[in-house]
Backbone:
């Protein structure tokens, strides 16, 4: 099993640019989670999906953030426009059930200049 | 709502010494409990989990954790720490129902001294 795949691993962009982060969950997992990790705030849940449907997006910081899951094997997290305070590591995770073991991807380190 | 407290932000342990990382949770019923480890530049890796049954759970890399309902705790232990154990450790709690998901603690950074 390839595990959760995220791309890109590193992204450096300038303020105001659009950023798209990608995630491929483990095959057969029905839940997909997007997290953000910073030194100040730790690990924050942004949004999660069940069977490709967004269940809880209350962690999405503002309207500049959006997430989609067009099919069971692909999800995107988009930031438009990006700001320096969005700099963080963004993790994608998947699981078979909501409270079952979550398997994390390697993360995308985003730097917004 | 469920919550997790990891009271220690940093812990330093000498190599070969024993380790205990504290985790306290808040949840009304029997929770699902997890410990994850994050090495620098990596994602989170599951160390062990408790769903039910034996309250002493064995995990990978020689770690174990004990669920104590009376203390609402799920502390992580290792009898002899290796330098490669230096990492950040996260405790997480999940509710045994519906669309609930995991709540993670703030993490404890483990430093291992020679």
Residues:
């Amino acid at each position: 099993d390839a595990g959760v795949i995220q791309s890109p691993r590193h992204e450096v962009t300038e303020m105001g640019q659009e950023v798209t982060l990608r995630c491929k969950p483990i095959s057969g997992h029905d839940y997909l989670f997007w997290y953000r990790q910073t030194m100040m705030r730790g690990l924050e849940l942004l949004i999660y999906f069940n069977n490709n449907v967004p269940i809880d997006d209350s962690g999405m910081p503002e309207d500049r953030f959006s997430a989609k899951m067009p099919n069971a094997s692909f999800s995107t997290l988009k930031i438009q426009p990006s700001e320096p305070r969005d700099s963080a590591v963004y993790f994608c995770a998947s699981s078979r059930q909501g409270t079952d073991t979550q398997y994390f991807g390697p993360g995308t380190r985003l730097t917004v200049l | 709502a469920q919550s997790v407290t990891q009271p220690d932000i940093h812990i330093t342990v000498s190599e070969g010494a024993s380790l205990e990382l504290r985790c306290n949770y808040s949840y009304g019923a029997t929770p699902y409990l997890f410990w994850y480890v994050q090495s620098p530049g990596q994602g989170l890796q599951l160390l062990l989990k408790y769903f039910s049954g034996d309250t002493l759970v064995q995990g990978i890399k020689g770690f174990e954790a004990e669920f104590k309902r009376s203390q609402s705790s799920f502390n992580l232990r290792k009898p002899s720490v290796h330098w490669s154990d230096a990492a950040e450790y996260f405790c997480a709690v999940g509710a045994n129902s519906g669309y609930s998901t995991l709540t993670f603690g703030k993490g404890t950074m483990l430093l291992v001294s020679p």
Observations:
- The interface with chain B takes residues 4, 31, 33, 42-43, 45, 48, 50, 55-56, 91, 93, 98-107 of chain A (CB under 8 Å).
- Chain A has a mean pLDDT of 93.
- The two ends of chain A are 36 Å apart (CA to CA).
